[in-house]
Specification:
The complex is a heterodimer of chains A (615) and B (192). In chain A, 34% of the residues lie in helices and 18% in strands. Chain A contains 21 helices and 22 strands. In chain A, strand 17, helix 20 and strand 18 form a beta-alpha-beta unit. In chain A, helix 2 crosses helix 8, helix 4 packs parallel to helix 6 and helix 16 crosses helix 20. With 192 residues, chain B is an alpha/beta fold. In chain B, helix 1 packs parallel to helix 6, helix 5 crosses helix 6 and helix 6 packs across helix 8. Chain B is globular. The model of chain B has no long low-confidence stretch (mean pLDDT 93). The chains are: A alpha/beta (615), B alpha/beta (192). Strand 8 of chain A pairs antiparallel with strand 2 of chain B.
Chain lengths: 615, 192
């Protein structure tokens, strides 16, 4: 391996490292691989932990056309088109994004590709930033396409380049499956000769038997898909992507992806079959490995993807009790397994006994976030709220406490209509962000109009895709490549799909927000409220106004604390009534949105003189 | 083979932890070690708790530090140092910035503050170094240099020469902020 070869330890000295040795996250490594492989088109929708892939592809925008697509399905369709036209193309998405893009995936498997087509799926075991921990390796089996599982950044780079080659050689899209700990972990990567491979000169020639899966043609494609998977199985048996690392013959472990790294740490003595190409499985190699060891274990993160297939081959696999299939793995969890396998006492989780009752530090809506007034009003009105995916999922929690459901991107709109049709006897509103509305809220809204609903949809329009780190979207007027483009108005879209009651409110005007929501909830026809304020983080907005609490006027009623604003804190007690603590405003955090001033019934929150504003 | 050195940087979103761990990783790489770094992105900027793990050695496999095997816990905030206490090895060292960033659960009155926080820190960390990095950064005239003060303090405990650290900083810190960050690093490194 290049890292070991060129990376000798020289104590204290700076090595003359080639400038092609970089310290890269897995996501950055994939972007570099796209450049190196001569990829020409890349498209994605942001989603943790995949977002940085396209953000880094954009560093090579002089060589690669790249875009934030409106959603993952569109991204997939764009790269399929590019591939069929003859260029290498790449799309990347989080695990649940592939659900959105599954429809084109299933059929591009049949049509095959022209230029190499790579689909990166970044799964999130442990659900650091996701609503489920589905194991997307099954998509590769489902779609009958090859699956590569890098275990670190170097492999993410090497395998992504190889994925393009496999794609063209076998006429198939290839899934590269990352996880949070390969996407967001960094390691040393030798980029090798970092000049893009030349275009392989593929051109588009019309062939409807290849690209139009009407039944007559699709049936032939279906047979070729099966032939392809058989050919790939032969390839998997001999490819260096799958390798045996010989150790003790007592215990053999089959593993893949990040789990390989934990295995090497917890079982340094074991023989390991490290699988890099896991669909189709290299059956001959697995059989050979199983015969070379006394006891065979399969260790994998999330579902029993390898395990069930290998057992189905009739190979004897050892059982174990240690539960590994829920949540992300770690070296420690494998040490627990090790203890079980060797019949040793289980390692204890160390405890210093100082963690009891530590106050939590959950993420919160920022000071100055416009979403706050909408949740405050919904809470006050006692509405049922179908929610969606974005920063505003934070409106679920106390003290805002104004969200009932979250399912998937865009679901809020259809969910609200479902509540309505079920005869739910409470006022119901859907709450959805601007980027999520463009992603998949529009069709739900069209459905409400068409099916004669009266639901209320509130679009929290902060003009950015905030939660994933402020990406451009159709509402921002900017593309991923930094070009100016048409800025799409949500009001116009809503009117365009037939909503007559469309109103725009300023999130910082709490009365206006509350009145609008109340009236639209009561209205006997579908309505859209566009609640506007740009994201202060995303647009790095400067503070132009700040507030402070007049200590003597404050009664300590805490109504302002119900806003859940991180800038408002409990302060000193009333000298005469020591049980009553008054509030104060943290000048480092206050953005000057004035919501606290608006809710204060005693007039205790005052404008600060501007000269005193410190930032 | 030399043992892998495990470093965990903890604190609150916005304190510059990710840049600090990038500098440490870069320095280790320049010094000829293998290095891996792991962190979770996402909602950190929204004031949540942040952890970044760096592992340095001859050959590093897992990017995650096994529980209870952290050699250096670099805590950018007082309360957060306790949240990750159990990750530190029994003979590990804690470098703790005494700055307090009140979590919203406390400032809003939902949860009580930990009154015995100092006693807990004494109990958890026999090997510890407390410093007021925020005050030091304010004296330098830039509160955003807390991260390089902490990195400087850590640097003395690692087997990497000063010139390597300086190169790592100069590669990773934008030119217009480099001077003050070098000063902050030197300040942290000079602490006894």
């Amino acid at each position: 391996m290049t890292v070991e070869k060129t990376h000798r330890r020289v104590s204290g000295a700076i090595l003359n490292m080639s400038e092609n040795m970089k310290f890269l996250s897995g996501n950055e490594a994939i972007a570099h691989a796209a450049y190196k492989a001569g990829c020409k088109v890349a498209a994605a929708y942001p989603g943790t932990p995949s977002t940085e892939i396209l953000e880094n592809v954009a560093r090579f925008k002089d060589h690669i056309y790249c875009e934030w697509s409106v959603n993952e399905k569109v991204a997939m369709e764009v790269v399929i088109g590019a591939s069929l036209a003859g260029t290498r193309a790449l799309t990347a998405m989080k695990h649940v994004g592939l659900n959105v893009a599954a429809d084109p995936l299933m059929t591009v498997s049949y049509t095959g590709v022209n230029g190499g087509l790579v689909i990166v799926s970044a799964d999130d075991p442990g659900m650091h930033s996701s609503q489920n921990e589905q194991d997307n390796r099954f998509y590769a089996r489902f779609a009958k396409v090859p699956l590569l599982e890098p275990s670190d950044s170097q492999e993410a780079y090497d395998m992504t380049i190889q994925a393009f080659t496999i794609s063209e050689e076998f006429n198939t899209p290839v899934i590269v499956r990352m996880t949070t700990r390969t996407s967001h972990a960094s390691g040393i990567v030798d980029l090798g000769d970092f000049t893009p491979l030349p275009s392989n000169g593929r051109i588009y020639t019309k062939d409807i038997t290849k690209t139009v899966p009407v039944p007559a043609f699709a049936r032939g494609m279906r047979v070729r898909v099966e032939e392809r998977i058989n050919a790939l199985r032969e390839y998997a048996n001999s490819s260096r992507l799958n390798r045996i690392e010989k150790g003790s013959s007592e215990i053999g472990i089959i593993t893949s992806g990040i789990t390989y790294q934990y295995v090497k740490e917890a079982f340094p003595e074991a023989s390991v079959l490290k699988l890099g190409l896991t669909n189709p499985l290299p059956r001959d190699l697995i059989r050979r490995f199983s015969e070379s060891v006394e006891r065979l274990y399969i260790i994998e993160e999330l579902d029993l993807f390898l395990d069930e297939q290998i057992r189905a081959m009739g190979i004897k696999v050892e059982d174990y009790e240690t539960q590994l299939n829920i949540g992300e793995l770690s070296p420690f969890r494998l040490k627990q397994l090790r203890a079980e396998i060797y019949g040793e006492p289980a390692p204890d989780l160390p405890s210093k006994g100082v963690g009891e009752g530590l106050p939590a530090r959950p993420p919160v809506l920022c000071a100055g976030c416009g979403h706050r007034s909408v949740f405050r009003a919904l809470n006050k009105l006692g509405a049922t709220v179908t929610g969606d995916i974005g920063c505003y999922s934070l409106g679920t929690f106390k003290p805002l406490d104004a969200m009932d459901t979250i399912i998937c991107m865009g679901a809020s709109v259809g969910n609200a209509f479902g509540f309505e049709k079920a005869g739910h006897n409470n006022k119901t509103a859907a709450v959805i962000g601007d980027s999520t509305f463009f992603h998949s809220g529009i069709t739900g809204l069209l459905n409400i109009v068409y099916n004669k609903g009266i639901s209320t949809v509130i679009v929290l329009d902060n003009r950015i895709t905030a939660m994933t780190g402020h990406q451009q979207n159709p509402g921002t007027g900017q593309t991923l490549m930094g070009e100016e483009t048409k800025e799409i108005s949500i009001e116009q879209v809503a009117r365009g799909v037939g909503v007559d009651r469309v109103r725009v409110v300023d999130c910082y005007d709490m009365d206006e927000v509350e009145t609008a929501i109340k009236e639209e909830l009561d209205a006997p026809e579908p309505s859209v409220i566009v609640a506007k304020r740009p994201c202060i983080l995303g647009y790095k907005l400067r503070v132009t106004r700040q507030f402070e609490v007049d200590f003597d006027t404050c009664k300590g009623c805490r109504i302002c604390l119900k806003l859940g604003c991180p800038a408002i804190e409990l302060g000193d007690a009333d000298p005469e009534k020591p049980k009553i603590r008054k509030v104060k405003i943290n000048p480092v955090l206050c953005f000057g949105c004035s919501m606290c001033q608006q809710v204060c019934t005693f007039g205790a929150i005052k404008d600060k003189v501007l000269e005193e504003v410190s930032r | 083979m030399k043992k892998t050195v495990n470093i965990a940087l903890v604190g609150v979103g916005g304190q510059g932890i990710l840049l600090a761990s990038e500098v440490i990783s870069r320095a280790a790489m320049l010094a000829g070690s293998d290095v891996k770094k792991s962190e979770v992105h996402g909602m950190a900027q929204r004031g949540g708790s942040v952890v970044s793990q760096v592992r340095i050695g001859e050959k590093v496999y897992s990017p995650l530090i096994p529980e209870g095997e952290t050699d250096f816990l670099v805590s950018f905030e007082l309360l957060e140092s306790l949240r990750y206490a159990d990750t530190l090895a029994p003979n590990g060292t804690a470098l703790i910035n005494t700055q307090v960033i009140t979590p919203v659960t406390v400032s809003s009155g939902q949860q009580p503050w930990v009154e015995d926080i100092e006693a807990r820190i004494e109990k958890a960390y026999p090997n510890r170094k407390l410093m007021d990095a925020l005050k030091m950064a304010q004296d330098l005239g830039n509160v955003r240099t807390v991260n390089m003060i902490m990195t400087g303090a850590l640097s003395k405990m690692l087997d990497i020469e000063e010139s390597v650290w300086l190169q790592a900083l100069s590669e990773l810190v934008p030119a217009k902020h480099l001077e003050v960050n070098l000063k902050a690093f030197a300040l942290g490194r000079g602490l006894e």
